[in-house]
Design a protein that fits this description.
The chain is mainly alpha-helical. The protein has 23 helices and no strands. It is found in: Membrane.
Amino acid sequence: MNRASQLSVLADGDPGNSILLCDLLDEWLSAGNVEQASARLITAPRALRELPGVRFREARCALLRGDAAMAIGLLKPLLADMQDVPFGVVHDLAYAQLLEGKPVDALETLSHAQAQGEEVVACSLLKARILHRQKQLEAALEVLAPIDGGARLSEVQGMRALLWLDIGDTVRASAEAERALTADPDQHEAGIVRGTVALWSQQVQESTAVFERVLAKHPESGRALFGLGQDVMLRGDVPGARALLECASGYMPDHIGTWHTLAWCQLMQGDLAGAKHSFDKAFALDRTFGETHGGFALVHALRGERKEAEESIKRATRLDPQGRSARYAQSVLLLDEGRVEEARAIIDNIITRTPGLGVVSADFIFRLRELVRPRG
């Protein structure tokens, strides 16, 4: 009989014993038996479920099931009512708030943490993730800077690598990611960095293999889904890419790059309404991003809405003079006037200036216009 089975027998024999119940729940949760732990909580006496230790474990079950809102509802009263709040309560509440898209609340909660030993590393990692969500990348790196050892060093290195990647320093990002992957070949953030750097280098086969490995361990990784979606898109499987990117947008609704890439998949399928919806989502996140206005311009141009397209082109080029989507929109407007060579020259210039990912040919734009142009 294993330890969980022994504890279950003991807890059955003493149903009012909160210590036995908590030990049993901890044993199941450490083994990943979330549903078993949740089922046991449902049958536990109400008086036991109201105790702080049991509520904490019920909240952890909710978190592991993906129900951050329920976890917040269980943990917030504990933070308010307990005099000496255990670190786990503070950490899990802040993490749940981060999952719910409330980084400001998460940072406020984390300020109550009284961490010791390895808890300091856990606190630093969570704070770095919150700051990352807030795009305070340098501040997040500062939080992790003092950590140079311990059981979670590879996780710290992976997080540092992702921060360097998002800052734009691929050299440091790759070096830190490789250190993390040497210690833990399945480290999540380090895998994302390795896959993304390979993707940016147009090593699509390697990138695909890396992202697939990440997703095998972390199927809800928005960044890995986003990366794999781009790989699939580059291989020409637009429906497959769209499915992956739609999934990624569900896990990362605040990631502009996902919405833009999804919009281009939708454009490739002639789905102007879908592309407009995705650009709207990007616009809600940042109203000053030039490529989003360029996307609006392209949609308007493809619909034959010349006035609206010209207005969006002006806004896009004012915000980003080098933006590509506004140039594509200009090429469509030139095609409407029969100025085919000028339209082609605009797109050829884009390709010359920015070769690589995210650049489409003149022939593609021409075919797209014919595909979606309303028939008179």
